[in-house]
Design a protein that fits this description.
Chain lengths: ~325, ~200
């Protein structure tokens, strides 16, 4: 998929998730929330999947862990450590080799004290010690252990969820929106911890809406729009508009406060009304008739793009390769 | 002028107050950013100012008078999670009708499409839903607007659209704003002044 050849911790290919729903009366419809999504995470890498809320990106985490609701159906393949992740295997690895830092603070049990939840009920001295060390690391007072979740603020709850995930020494962390509600310094701190975790040879799949934070910490950015991945880029590609591939990514870049907060009209389409062909078509300045056909994923300058208008730029190509290798070495 | 005077609030009788003697003022032409670390009680403070809860001590005044006990509250709040602040059983048209005579100009300015009004909340994306919540808070009687992390969950394009609209609208109607956000870059762009609550 990209220019680097490294050990994959996680490889997701052509993942689609859809929901069976009742429309009117007993009439059932199939709601495609994720379509043909491709993501891979290599050893020592943080990969950020960036998309806005309500775009279905949390379902990606749930699909990997096998905790989708009963009315969801799944297509495509997921590999963990080169091994096909079947529903059976998902049950074995989740909470151990793959840990989730969930999005909503509602994932904490409201009737159980925090300490008990972090330790999963374990009171052995080693586990207690590890919890205390993690609390110190994330500036949680030791008394937090005896609080109920409603007594903790949003930011505290997120740090509690992060500590819980790290208790079991995982190989891959899936972090679903781990930082909103945290002030910037703590968000960066949490990100540093992910960085350190990745540098030890592990992988992090960071699912977030916060592209600026993702740019500070991740190695690669996967841009999620209307249920699919429109571009996979190196973080360094975001240094200039020319290196980016997809018109939506370019629009995102222009909308960053530091680049002028410039916006384009319209909003992401709801899954029931996806346009024919390119999902960004109706808002795209380059839109033409061919964009209503099938849009394959292409490799351009060491990243991927789902756009037929994006040109292979050979002058940048060599440069891009070099960057990929620098990243591989870091 | 919107004034918070010496507000004190605690969730338990013995515990230390979450909001401890906080005072500030917002003028109609101002957009005031609120800075404080997480867990400081920003959302609690906003609920007090918006009249959702009563303070243990202190008062909230609009032009020298306390918030009305009945009728439309001149201080309106937009919440962080749009999916939690609309009734899931109402169509979006009815959600809008909960507001105070929302003008078409606002609905157009926020890019709300006619067809979305016929849907239920769960049939809209987060960004689409938040546009309705903002429109609903901008009724005729609104004098001050509280925005508590209203755009963090949205993509940057939607954030830009929403903030550029809010700046135009509140400037035109002289609506004062209180803004909570953890993004310093956003506050620098949007606010006319910033208050550090920890001082």
């Amino acid at each position: 998929m990209s220019c680097q050849e490294k050990h994959h911790i996680l490889e997701i290919s052509n993942l689609s998730v859809s929901f069976r729903q009742y429309d009117r009366g007993t009439n059932q419809i199939n709601l495609p929330v994720i379509t043909n999504l491709n993501v891979s995470v290599h050893d020592g890498e943080i990969v950020a999947v960036v998309g806005s809320s309500g775009s279905g990106k949390s379902l990606l985490a749930h699909a990997i862990l096998g905790i989708l609701p009963y009315n969801a159906s799944l297509a495509g393949e997921i590999y963990f450590n080169q091994e096909l992740l079947t529903e059976e295997r998902k049950k074995q690895v989740r909470g151990k080799e793959i840990a989730l830092v969930p999005q909503s603070v509602n994932y904490l049990d409201p009737l159980m004290k925090v300490g008990l939840q972090v330790r999963n009920g374990d009171k052995s001295p080693g586990v207690m010690e590890r919890m205390k060390a993690l609390f110190r690391k994330y500036h949680l007072e030791q008394e937090t252990e005896n609080l109920y979740p409603f007594e903790c603020s949003g930011g505290m709850s997120r740090r509690i969820l992060l500590s819980t995930a790290l208790m079991g020494n995982p190989r891959l962390i899936i972090a679903d929106e781990p930082t909103p509600g945290m002030e910037l310094s703590l968000a960066k701190k949490a990100m540093e911890d992910f960085r350190q975790f990745a540098d030890e040879g592990n992988g992090v799949l960071l699912i977030t809406h916060d592209i600026e934070l993702a740019l500070e910490v991740a190695d690669r950015i996967v841009v999620f729009y209307a249920g699919t991945t429109v571009e996979e880029a190196l973080v360094s590609d975001f240094e200039s508009l020319e290196k980016l591939r997809h018109p939506y990514t370019k629009a995102l870049w222009r909308a960053m406060p530091r680049n002028g907060f410039e916006t384009i009209p319209g909003s992401q389409p709801y899954v029931k009304e996806l346009p024919e062909g390119c999902v960004f078509g109706p808002r795209c300045p380059l839109f033409s008739e061919e964009c209503e056909g099938e849009i394959p994923e292409r490799v351009v300058r060491c990243g991927t793009v789902r756009c037929i208008k994006c040109e292979e730029d050979h002058s940048h190509h060599h440069h891009g390769r070099e960057e990929a290798h620098t990243h591989a070495g870091s | 002028m919107l004034e918070a005077k010496n507000l004190v609030f605690s969730y338990t009788k013995e515990g230390k107050p979450v909001v401890d003697h906080v005072s500030f003022q917002v003028a109609p032409e101002e957009r005031v950013g609120m800075l404080a670390p997480s867990g400081f009680g920003k959302t609690t403070l906003m609920k007090l100012v918006g009249g959702y809860m009563l303070p243990d001590e202190g008062e909230v005044l609009v032009d020298g008078k306390p918030l009305p006990e009945k009728g439309y509250c001149p201080v309106q709040m937009i919440w962080q999670h749009p999916e939690k602040s609309v009734n899931p059983r109402l169509k979006m048209r009815e959600v809008l009708a909960e507001g105070d005579q929302i003008e078409d100009r606002i609905i157009e300015g926020l890019g709300i499409e006619e067809d979305w009004k016929n849907r239920y909340p769960q049939e809209l994306s987060g960004g689409e839903l938040q546009r309705f919540c903002i429109a609903r808070a901008l009724g005729k009687g609104t004098r001050y607007l509280i925005a508590d992390e209203i755009s963090t969950m949205l993509d940057l394009i939607t954030q830009g659209q929403i903030w550029n609209f809010l700046i135009r609208e509140t400037t035109e109607r002289k609506i004062g704003m209180l803004i909570v956000s953890h993004s310093q870059e956003l506050l620098d762009y949007v606010c006319t002044s910033q208050v550090d609550l920890t001082l």
